[in-house]
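Record format v2
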Amino acid sequence: MLPDFTNPADWLPWAFASLMGLSILVYVVLDGFDLGVGILFPLAVPEDQDKMIGSIGPFWDANETWLVLAVGLLLVAFPQAHGMILTALYLPVFIMLVGLILRGVAFEFRAKARDHHKRLWNRLFFTGSLMTALAQGFMLGLYVMGLDQTLATYAFAMLTAVFLAVGYSFIGSTWLIHKTEGALQLKAVRWGRESLWGVVLGIGAVSLATPLVSTRIFDKWLSFPEVIYLAPLPILSGLLIVWLWRMLRAMPFADDRRSWLPFLVSTCLFTLAYLGMAYSFYPYVVPDRLTIYEAASAPESLFIILVGACFVVPVIAAYSILAYVIFRGKATALRYD
Amino acid sequence: METLDTLILSRIQFAANISFHILFPTITIALGWVLLFFRLRFAQTADGKWMSAYRFWVKVFALSFAMGVVSGITMSFQFGTNWPGFMETVGNIAGPLLAYEVLTAFFLEAAFVGIMLFGFSRVPGWLHMLATFLVAFGTTVSAFWIIVLNSWMHTPQGFEMIDGVAHATDWWAIIFNPSMPYRFAHMILASFLTVGFLIAGVSAFRWLLGDRSRDLRAALKVGVSIGAVLIPVQIFMGDMHGLNTLEYQPAKVAAMEGNWETQTNVPLLLFALPDEEARENRFEIGIPNLASLILTHHADGEVPGLNDFVAEDGTVLHPPVAKVFWSFRVMVGTGLAMLLISWASVWFMWRRRALHEGRIAGHWMAVEGLPKPILFALVPMAFSGWVATLAGWYTTEIGRQPWLVQGVMTTDMAVADVAAPLVLGTLITYLAIYAALLVAYISVITYLARKAAKGDDGRAIDMDHSGKAGVLAITPAE
């Protein structure tokens, strides 16, 4: 998997694929939880809704920025792949963008509009979050299917759309478990239990479908001795799921101890699933059609971006963490003071 | 025909998306700095009016910021969905510039805007001021990189073409390309003017509703002063930008002036209907020699004509004339209205400064001095900055056609092969959403202004000079 570090044309695309992969993963976890909170939104009573908004309000802007970074890296490092993938996903991308627009503005408008308009914005906030999650799940499904557009691949993509939306609700509820207390927290625990199936089926569906669609991926996983080295990945994922399930049945713990644990464990689970996918598709950026090496920009352009990224990404991480530290603790309704 | 339809629809779609997007950065770039000014004045004077002004305008900022973020995300996808040829040809140049925008600016704004909006009572004062500064700085840096890329598309340099793909040879030349300094200054000034008139207009609206609060007076004076001071600077900068365009994109200037033949003693046309079929203007009304004078600083200076930009085989290599001609006039006309109204406002407020309620020494201006007609004129001027900014961008962007990157690639080389009905369908949906959001945006600002005018947004109920205790009086829903 490791490139030749003496040859820039070899390691630069690899470095950018890793950086892009990392951005997508960070995006899926971070915007995953705040989209999830949006999907769970109508299930809560109005007072709790303000707290739910409060639990994601200071973060969602920065969370969505990881999507821009991921798409930006695809655009600048692999321009050909960017064109191929986004033209193929024209409609789901459009639906996702409309969803992101609606929820992003509903966020602000619901807090400032007159009271009888607030219900409309609440509804749009939920609709936008759901549209975004479904569209992303649909794109995931089509990507796994090698971007083929047939009835069967659409059907599969519909399934992954539902699974991802439920999966986002799951990670959203684990976030709420950490950020809330009292009745809302109890509800969040229940939502977590009731949406775990989405995560299980989502990971299961992608894991089963990926090797079946491509013999290359099938061989990567199931030939000897790879199958031995890779065995810990599914086993560990299974253990994490069992752990989550047991934890959610017992939560909340006394004195609200370890309220952060479900979110952390879900993040690990999402990461493992993601690593599995990354292993399957590497070195392709457009499944079985275009490798990261074929799609990459000129090395000198990549290098100049990488220099900037090496300075800036740690700083971004630092001030993102700063924002999470400042707004740590249980969420309250947001106030501009 | 199929590809032509897709091309035109894709262009309209891109124009719709970017026009909608630019409205909000135009506000947030300068409003960030104005908020920093309010915040610093509060720290300096401990006068609660500055914090009240801050808290009113930070809501408008939050709203505009959110609109800017979501419409900006749309932009980053448009390249791939509709214009893959752009990045395939000049991706080696555009890529790093866009990457630096996201890395240096976008994250900075996004991370600190949370602290700026919701952190006042959670973080120490210096950190809140720092966050406000970093957000303002981030929006400006963001504008810088975008303008660099845009300017490079107008005046490209510092690259070589290898097998039809641009490769960077000199980054310094790419970043500081000839039109960048002018365009950047022009845009930043446009942003400040937009915000100046927005603040002045909304404040005048509140004043007309009977609001006489101190934060309103302060904001109105700040807004009008920004307009009055910067509009002459902007006119001067616009002139310099025009001279730069004359040097590098003469076809654009020819279209702006509606000048068909290269000639001397060119009049400045106040009105004309350029006819591209007949290649002449109808119903011309102009001021003799003025265009020559402005562009060359000589009454008998030579101004390039559109007919120079037609290839021997009849291919037209200049932009659509009427659109550029009229966009330019809308921009200049709005600028002149801004000049007139802001100077008149300042003059009346200064002349009648003695009317200041409970006059305190040191007041240079009194809002009471403003005559009703001027107050009424300021209200619609709240969005005059948007009109001028859009008209200016249409002038320069349509003026670049048929080129996408001047002299390097034409627009039709970049368009994606997406079915026209699909582009049309998404375009209509975008337009519907944007129209609805614009209505919502303007009505929420109106609503916030009405609410503030009634004094029930919890402003300054007991703003004491410690600055901390009193500001907690705000309704939770906000």
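Chain B has one domain: 2-249+321-472.
The beta strands of chain B are 159-162, 165-168, 263-264, 268-275, 280-287, 302-303, 403-405, 409-410.
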